[in-house]
Amino acid sequence: MRKLLFTLLASVPAMAFSQGFQVNLHGQKQIGMGHTGTGLLQDGASVLFNPGAVAMLPENYVQAGVSPLLFKSAFSPTGSNTQYDVANKIATPFTAYGVWGPKGSNFKFGLGVYTPFGGLTDWGNTWTGKYTLTSLDLKAIFFQPTISYKLTDRVSIGGGFVYNHASVVLKRAIPLASSTGADGEAELNGKGHGFGWNAGVFVKASEKFTVGVNYRSQVTTKVKNGDAIFKVPASVQANFPQPNTFTASLPLPSTTSIGIGYYPHKDWTIAVDASFVNWAVYKSLDFDYANNTATLQDTHSPRNYKNGSVYRVGAEYKASTKWALRAGGGYASTPVQDGYVTPEAPDANRLIFTGGLGYKATKNLNIDASFMYEDVLSRTQTNIETNLAGTFKTNVFIPGISLSYHW
């Protein structure tokens, strides 16, 4: 029983720490170009991609977009021909940006609201891993007020304060059957917040090249008084005290990015981005429960993640005064080491393919659409804590659309 509770509770926030739940969907123009943007000057999404570029924007912006995400994952247990699939549910990562500065001023101010981490997964309560996970709903919303200053006609800098509001609901079965034969259920439901910052430098190296460097800090999100809810037979209810709460601290890692923009022709833009994510800060996960029993103890669970990296390339072609065509791709390495892959985050190295369209509806209004496909390579693993063994294969499909008004 103690081992059951340890694996049940200690593995919960793994969902917040894999490439699979780092949501890189921060602007439709950028997504269409492989999600590049650190070294480009495009629109209000520079608030996130590189605050240093904001002061160089020739116009003010108000824009918003959504990227419905369909996560298709399958699991085949070792030694079996059976395949289990997640339910068809759609998550809705969104972005909203505003940029404003007086005409002729070297200053611009910005605000970004975006979702850099999130997930929506439902394996159901009949699959072989139901005692590890049945469903997950994770949301992390960042709020970033920003200021940017143009030092010269070629160099600008910027930075912003970040506030994170996060929520998570995770459910899994407990092998304690009721009189009707139904499994017990555990639900962990919590909200938390954290603080960080985002800063960047943007350089117009020449008429054909721009360069950007961006650093997004670690945001340690603290969950206090999250609800631990257990539905178990009355005969063992004393081992699962109710009501009960938990406290935990979750280090969302820092990201360092460098990007280059190249303009070989007035109608063409080519971009390359490289990002390095400091996942190694996630050494262990510790839970402190308000009410303990001999069965339900505070937990310390090693994770030992490694640093990850993402490499992206993209291009835009202005087909006419109203239409723009975009395409791109990339490769992301997983930070999840062997033995730590879970159904909350069935992560592996992945290939990324994107495309997009831009339409200038009026002088001041743009409509941008994008599509991203991620091929998460199959991975056969045995989890060192739960002993869940088998092969995960995941594909992610993400259409998106945004409106931007500029003046």
From TrEMBL:
Keyword terms of this UniProt record = Cell outer membrane, Membrane, Signal, Transmembrane, Transmembrane beta strand
Topology in the lipid bilayer:
Multi-pass membrane protein
* InterPro entries (UniProt xref): OMPP1/FadL/TodX (IPR005017)
GO CC terms of this entry: cell outer membrane
Q: Looking at the keywords, is Signal present?
A: yes
The residues the entry assigns to the signal sequence are: 1-16
- Enumerate the GO terms in the molecular function aspect: long-chain fatty acid transporting porin activity
Q: Which Gene3D superfamilies match?
A: Outer membrane protein transport protein (OMPP1/FadL/TodX)
In which compartments does the protein localize? Cell outer membrane
* UniProt family annotation: Belongs to the OmpP1/FadL family.
Output this protein's name.
Outer membrane protein transport protein
Give the species this sequence originates from. Mucilaginibacter myungsuensis
